Amino acid sequence: MNESLSKTLVVDAGSTKIHWKSLDSGAPLITTKGWNPSQDANPLHFDDSELLEALHKTEKLIFYGTGTKSSYAQIRLQKTFQPFDLELEIHSDLIGAARALFGHSEGIVVILGTGSNVAYYDGKEISLLTPSLGYLLGDEGSGNAIGKAILRDFMYKEMPVELRDQFERQYNVNLEIVLEALYQKDRPNAYLAQFPKFLSKINSPWKDQLLKNEFNELVEKRILKHKNFLSVQIGFVGSTAFYFSNSLQTVCNSYQINNFKILREPILALVEYHRNSI
After folding, report:
1. Structural domain boundaries, residue 81
2. Helices (H), 93-204
3. pLDDT at residue 24 in the model
4. Which of 33, 159, 162, 257 has the smallest number of CB atoms closer than 10 Å to its CB?
5. SS3 breakdown of the chain: % helix, strand, coil, rounded to 5?
């Protein structure tokens, strides 16, 4: 193991899961439960023995995550990692996605996982033309937005009958359970983001139209705001973009957006970015 590389740990933290990977190529990729320092009331738990071992060996931790921009989140992150006596570098998930997708080149970066966000990246910095409004007002095209659409169609009986029965058996949902999960429990966005998995197992015109509607929202409200959206590459990062890539591609092509790429997870590309920066 290269000791100098193993002392730097890169983190990609989302609401659903967190990836931890040192710069040493032989080090394992560690995956733990997601955490948002701005939204989650509970602290980040270090209950993985492999992760604890890695943290105690770490001298510098480069943290990319959702919900990291506020002063409250920054202070909370500092306190979270204070017991490990390491240098902490904090970045937004957008910067992480941009670096993973484009390195030092320009492009439009789109995070499309549990939540969504869009920004222009000039090779160094990002600029937001539209704010991230979160799962209540925004997150167009994301896992939780698609989850909302699925639940609405189920509750309003707009989902095909044969699929309603299948969905009800798989998730055991009813109005009481859904409202409690959304309005009384923690992490409602992660709760919503579990339902798009249902779409990956079915073929239906209803599914195709639902995905088309959600991705149209993303393109029209977030991507078309960028005047250069046809002249630079657009990069999508996240599980939603990856698993529904065919539907996403179809919608993008309908707007003459053909120069794009999709990356399921940024962690390995981020590790490579930082290895090359040493």
Report:
1. 3-98+267-277
2. 93-102, 134-137, 143-155, 161-171, 175-183, 188-192
3. 84
4. 162
5. 45, 20, 35
